Amino acid sequence: MDYISVYLSATFMILVTILFRKYAMGKVPYIVFDILWIMTVVRFFIPIKFESGLSAFNLYYALKDMIIYKMDLDIFWLKQMGATLSPYIDMIKYILFFVWLVGFIIISMFFYIDYKRGIQIIKNAENCEYDVQIKQWLKRKNLCRKIEIKTSYDINIPVSYGTLKQGILLPPEFIWQKKESEQILLHEYIHIKYFHEFCNIILIALVCINWFHPCIWLLYKYVHRDMEIFCDRQVLSLLGEKEKKSYAFNLIYSAQQEKSSSIVYSNFARSCVKERIEAIMNFKKMSVFAGIVSIMIPASIVTAFATTDVVISQKEMEQITVVQEKEESVITTGVMQNSIYMEGNIKDIKPYIDEIKENSAYKLKDYKYIVYEKLPPQEIIYSVEENGFRYEGVLVCDFVKCDYKKEKYTGYYSGVLYQSLQKK
Q1: Contact 419, 358 (CB under 8 A)
Q2: Structure confidence by residue, pLDDT tens digits, 72-92
Q3: 3-state secondary structure 54-110
Q4: Would the pLDDT of 112 be above 90?
Q5: Cα 191 to chain center, whole Å?
């Protein structure tokens, strides 16, 4: 399992979803963004590689030459720097872990304090005089989830709360049987119906663990926005498009009244009001075509950015061995053949010469070694003769590309062939 590649794919999913959301909001069904956020969060919590030939990460190998070689970066210098720091790796790991732990504790305490405050508000709530009427009204709309209806003097607009024991808190000045009151109650009920507070707990856990990652904070922000938009649109699905204008005015008024919020509960005016009003005014029931688009767009983005490349890395190669039995190749875990010896001529390596160092050495890149039904070696000890001089060196496999249908494995090697001291 390569957690780093999975982590990067989830990060790219966040960035791509935010960009797509910015330029496609109002042009594609809003449920597209909900699906993308769900897939992104799932990607973080399931660190398993899903390989795909359509993964955008395969582009890395196409850009490798331009990034590393054409920009004239000295890979060997980087390796030398890594070797210099290697004695301090353990100390660096301990320091980084300590910094992460301090950040984890601080962020967790912030959420815990807010949680305790919200729980105290719920505990101090009193029985609501509209309890029976509201539950009967919800039942008439086929909304039969068992919930509590209470009154709290610590809030000024209705809020929903709870994951297992769910309910709605109403302010003391709440007036039942008004159109605006029914709209707000439906909005809060949708939060309860789809367990948005449980989703909030998952997001908080993700933020606490990955507090150092700016994209996680963006994920937390935009998921909350889209949960509110989701509830708005679900309410309009129940009430009808004719209620769009009155619902938008209700949202504006509630946003002006809101004075407090908590991670424990959701309220009607919690997130970006301007964006929500635009979504409300653009609301229309989903067509069959829109439903197809809602499936195809997330599937395409997930395939491109949530999957990983099909290239075998050097680390993965070290965990594979090829055992020959009766002219058949059997792949098992272990240590593969370390190296082979090869002799060639200058014509063989000429296409792969990246640099000639004062006629005393040839620097090679992307030298191809193709084998069938087995993996190529980790290293090739290569020898070539030119003008009476012998050039020898070790070519190290950078990566392997696989054609599973043909059982063809192409290893790409780089290294330096040094000239012998004496001329033959």
Answers
A1: no
A2: 444 445 555 555 666 677 788
A3: CCHHHHHHHHHHHHHHCCCCCHHHHHHHHHHHHHHHHHHHHHHHHHHHHHHHHHHHH
A4: yes
A5: 24
